Structure formats: C-alpha cells, structure tokens
Amino acid sequence: MMTGFRLNLSPLKEPLGFLKLVEWLTAIFAFGSCGGFSGTNIVSLFCGDGTNKTLNANFQYPFRLSKFPLVDGNTTICNHSVPTTHLMGDSTSAAEFFVGIGVLCFLYSMVALLVYLGYMHVYKDSDFGPIFDFVITAALVFLWLVCSSAWAKGLQNVKDATDTEAISNTLALCKGSNITCEVTDFANMRTLNISVVFGFLNMFIWAGNAWFVYKETRWHSQKFSSQPGPGRQQVPAPI
Prior knowledge:
Layout: H1 15-35, E1 38-46, E2 52-60, E3 69-71, E4 75-77, E5 80-82, E6 85-86, H2 92-118, H3 120-125, H4 128-161, H5 164-170, E7 180-185, H6 190-214, H7 218-225
Antiparallel strand pairs: 1-2, 1-7, 3-6, 4-5
C-alpha cells in the first residue's frame, strides 16, 4: 500500500471534505468572537446635590468579573468615601470551555483536511482511519452541545452581573441613600451573541458531517453488503 502524500482536491467537492472546510471556518468564528471580546459599561451616579459622576465597568474574556475594579482605591464619590469595589460574577469556566472546544475543532479540522487532500488513498484503504474519524466527530457533536449551552448560560450571567440592578447591589453607595445608580451606556455584546449562535451552528454542522464520515466506515458497508440484493431468493438450509 502506497502511503506517500498525494495532493488531490476532489474531496473538497464532496460533502465529506467540504463540510470539514466549513467546520474549520465556523470554529474560527466561534472562538474568535468570544475570546477576543472586551467591553465597558458606563455607570452614572446621580448625587443628591445635583451633581453627576460616572464609573467605567470594564470586563473582558475570560469574564472573571471579580478581577475587574468598579472603584479602584478609596475614592470620594458624592461626598461619600467608597472603598475598592469589584464587579461580581465569574463565567470563566464556561467561556474557556467554549473557546477550548472551538480551538480543538479548528486544529482537528486542519488535520482532517490534510488527510483528506493528501492521504485519502490511505484513509479509504484502512478501517482505522474512518472509524477514528467518526468517533471523534460524534464526540465533538456532543461537546459542541455541552459547551454552547454552558456558554449561553455564562453569557447571560455576564449580562446580569453588569446591568443596573447588579451594579447597584454591588456599590454600597447606591443602597439606602439619595444617590441613584444607573447603567446609561451598555457594552456592545453582539459578538458574544454571535459566538453562541456559531456554537450551536457548529453542533449541527458536525452532526451532519458525522453521517458522511459514518458512510466511510466498514459498519456502513457491512450493513449494505449483508442485505440480499433485488431478485435474490433466500435458499433454505438443508435439513
């Protein structure tokens, strides 16, 4: 059996190779739109004496919000001394899990494309290649479902932790006084919403790809080779 590299672009014209290329691209969009995010919410404080103050609530990936100061150092705001105060909440595990699966799929898609385009003759001549490909693809379908669901919940937690109610509860200054705290300018989280969409989109694409990978395995070929052909009659076994 020849095992050398033979460049052949024809697999890209078939669902097996084309979907792997799509998976490579959608994985980039998924982890890129999440891992590269940073934003700022503008918090306005309306003091009782008619003056206004603003605070910047900065946060970014991996969304360990307790590390981002809302008030840095002892500061006087609206004639009140305010100690160092951080945002509340932590969506690190969900965000890093999501980005990690995205990077893993990006790398696996590249390796699979290399095999399809250069070693397809080896891939089709062995049982191990298609079966290994199918098992990994099926596992990644499940992982995309889990990580996308976890990140969707984590993203909602980030939104809740940076809204007016949560920040008002975090700042002692805003409780039981004549000072009103309100988030007047929200960070644009469109890219984070897109990352969730791409997460579930990846799940469906990998699920579709799993079927075409399964067709390359001996399990699929054995299933059809064991079926009687048209017009073929079953001969009863001799007694």
